[in-house]
Amino acid sequence: MPEKKASHKKRDQELCSDERHLRLLNNIINSIIASDDYELMMKKLVRDLADLLEADDCYLARWQPSGRPVSLAAATQKFKPYSDEQAFSPQEEALVISALDKRKVLVLKQSDPLAANLEVICKHSEKCTLLVIPLIYSEMKIGTAILTYGQGKEIEKEDRLCAGQVGQQIALMLCDAQQDYELQKRLRETNTLANIARNLSETEHVGLRSVLQLIVASVKELIPKADQTVIHILDEDGEYLVPEAVSWLNGKIDNTVRMRLGEGIAGQVLSNGATIKVADVFTDERFLKTDMPPKFRSMIVAPVQSGSQKLGTISIWNNLPNAFTQDECDLLSALGIQAANACLLELTKTSQKETNALYRISQGLVAAIDPEQLMNDVVELLKENFGYYHVQIYVADPESGDFYVRAGSGEIGRKLVEMKHHLAVGEGFVGYTAETGMPFFTNTVEDSVSFVANPLLPETKSELAVPIKVGNRMLGLLDVQQKPPSVLTSRDMHLVSAVADQLAVALQKANLYADLQTALHQEQETRSQLIHSERLAVVGRLLASVSHELNNPLQAIQNALFLLKEEIGISEQGRQDLNIVLSETERMASLLERLRVAYRTVKVEDFQLIQFNDIIEDIAALVATHLRHNKIIFEFHPDPNLPRVFGLDEQLRQVMLNLFVNAVDAMSSGGRLRVFTDYDKKHKEVVITISDTGVGIEPAILPNVFEAFVTNKERGSGLGLTITYEIVAKHNGRIKAENNKGPGATFKVWLPAAQEPAV
What we know:
Layout: H1 2-34, H2 38-52, E1 57-62, E2 71-75, E3 86-87, H3 90-102, E4 106-109, E5 129-137, E6 140-149, H4 157-200, H5 203-206, H6 208-222, E7 228-234, E8 240-246, E9 259-260, H7 264-272, E10 276-278, H8 285-288, E11 298-306, E12 309-318, H9 326-367, H10 371-386, E13 390-396, E14 403-408, H11 410-418, E15 422-423, H12 428-436, E16 440-442, E17 462-470, E18 473-482, H13 490-566, H14 572-598, E19 608-610, H15 612-622, H16 624-629, E20 632-637, E21 645-647, H17 649-666, E22 671-680, E23 685-691, H18 720-730, E24 734-739, E25 745-752
Parallel strand pairs: 20-22
Antiparallel strand pairs: 1-2, 1-6, 2-3, 4-5, 5-6, 7-8, 7-12, 8-9, 10-11, 11-12, 13-14, 13-18, 14-15, 16-17, 17-18, 19-21, 22-23, 23-25, 24-25
Helix pairs in contact: 1-2, 1-4, 4-6, 4-9, 6-9, 9-10, 9-13, 10-13, 13-14, 15-17, 17-18
C-alpha cells in the first residue's frame, strides 16, 4: 500500500511537472509569435528558458553565416552585464560550433575541455554544469541556448531529451520570427530608401540640406541603436569636412567645426573610400592616442562618394560597445550612396543653373548698348538667379576719385543709387579691391577691419568684391553680399569674376557706342549749324542788297514828299495824309538801316563797354505805351552788381527790342512780362532772362525757332529771331528758347562779361 501511494505521488509530480513544462513552453511560443520587437523578444526568451529548464542563467549565442564570429544575442545577465552582439572568445565559439555540428544537446562539467576558459559565459562555481542546446531548424542554424547550473545539479537523461525537444520547437519559432523580422526590416529599408529617392527627384524644391536631413532621420528608423548621426560634406576647396545634417534635437549645425581631409575616422574613411566600424573606442588603438576621451563607445563611418568622386561621410555613434552589426554597416554604406546621389544632383543642378544664368547674362550683355540698363540688368540677374542678399556696381567719380553706386539690386539698390552712396579708395572691401585690383571675399565681415557696415544692409555676413576691368583699365567694381545661413564660396568668386569680365567687355562696347553716337550727334549739329550759318549769310547778303536797292528810290520818294509839303494850296486833309506818308517812309528807311547794321561786318574795335541793365530800362521806356495798350504788366529784376559786357549798343538794343515785341505779340489778351539779369560766376557770363505768360511756342517749330522765315505769327516775317540769334552769336554769346511749365515762353541770353569790373 505505501508503495502504491508513493507511485501515485510520483506520477502526480510528473504530471504537474509536465503540465508546468507545457504551460511555460506554450507561453514562450506565444511570446515569440506575438512579439513585434525581435531584440526584446530575445531578451525575454532567455529569462523564460531559464525558468522553463530551471537554470540559474541562460545565454543565447547567435550563429553568424559567411564566416562572421559567433556573438552573444541575449543573456539573463544576473552576475555580469554584457552588451548585445558581444563577440565570443575562441573557446566559447568552439563550444557553440561543436553543439551545432553534433546537432545534439551537450552536458558539460567545468572540468570538460570545452567548458574551460569561458570569458563571456558566467561561471557560478568550479563545479558549474553547462547545458548546451543547439537551435537548428532543418538545415538552418540559428544558434545555441547555453544554460548554466550551480553546484550539485545533475542533468538527467529525461532533462536532456526535454531540452532537445524545447530546442527544436524554439528553433522553429525563432526561424519564423527571424524571417518575419528580416522581411519587416527589408520592407522598412525599401520604403525608406524609396522615400529618399522620391525626395531626391524634388531636390530643386526641397533643397539639398532637407534631403540630407531626411537621410539622417531615416537612420534612426533603420538603425535604432544609432544615438547620433551626422553627415559631413567636403567644402568647395576639398580640404575640410563640414557638417551639413545632424540628428540632435536642436538641429543646429556649427559650420566652424571642421575636419581636415585625412584627419579622424571620417577623414580616413574619405581618403580610403571604405567604411570603418569601431567596436569599442576604449580598445581601438586609433582612439587610445587621442588626448580627449570620446563621448561614445562604438561607431560606424561610411563614405559619401560616387565612383572616384569623394563628397563626404555619414557617421553613427552609440554609448555602448559593440552596438552595431555588419548588416547595419552595409546599410549605412547604402545611405551614404544616397547622400552622394543627392550631392551630385545638387551640384549638377547648380552647374546647370549657373550655366543658364551666365548664358542669359551673356545674351543680355551682347544685346545691350545702354550702360545704365546693362548694369541694372546684371545686378538683378545675379540676385534673382543665385539668391544673393544684395548686388551692386560701383564706378569711379572722375572728380573726387571715390567709388559710388551706379546700379543696385532691389529697392535698397535704388535708394543707394539715389543717395549716390560712395566709398573712398582703400575704404571697405570695395575700396580695398579698387586699390589692389584683386578680388576679395569673406564670410565673416565683422572680423575684418576693412569692413564698412551699411545701415540699409544690416544682415550682411559675407561679402565679395570683384574688379570690372579691361586690361589695366578699371571700369568699376562688382560687389555681392550674402546673409546667413548662406555663405559665399570660391565657386561664387569664380562665377562673379566671370560675370565681371563679360560686363567689362560689354561696358567698353557700350561706352564706345555711346561715344560714337555723341560724335555723330555733334557732327550732325555742326553740319546743321554750318547750314544755318550759310543760310543766314545768304539771307544777310540778300537783305543787304535789297535794302541798298530800296534805299535809293525811298530817298527819292522822301525828297519828293518834302517838296510837295512846301507846295501852296494843299488842303488840310491832304497835308495830314502827306505827313502820314512821310512818317511811314521814315520808318521804312529806319528798318532798312537796321538790316544793314545787323548784317554788316562787325569789328572788335567797334565794341564798347555796355551796362545791360541800362539797355533794358531804355527799351522798357520805349515800349511802355505799347505795353500799356496791350494790358501787359512789366517787371524788371536787375542784378545791381551786374558786370558790363563788350558789344555794339545799337545791336544789343535791337536784340532786346525784338524779344520784347515778340513777348507782347504772344500776349494778345494781356499778361505779364518779366525780365531778370544775373551774373554766372562759374562761367563768367551775364545772363538775361525774358519770360512771358503768352501762348508759348508751338512744339513743332521750337527746335528751329531761330531759323529764317520760321514763325507762328500770321503777319510775321520770321526774321526777327534770326537777326537776334545772329547778333548774339557775333557777340560770342548764346540764346535759348523754351516753353514754361505753365503758360508762356522764356528766352535766355548769355553774353561774356567784360574782364574789367563794372563802375
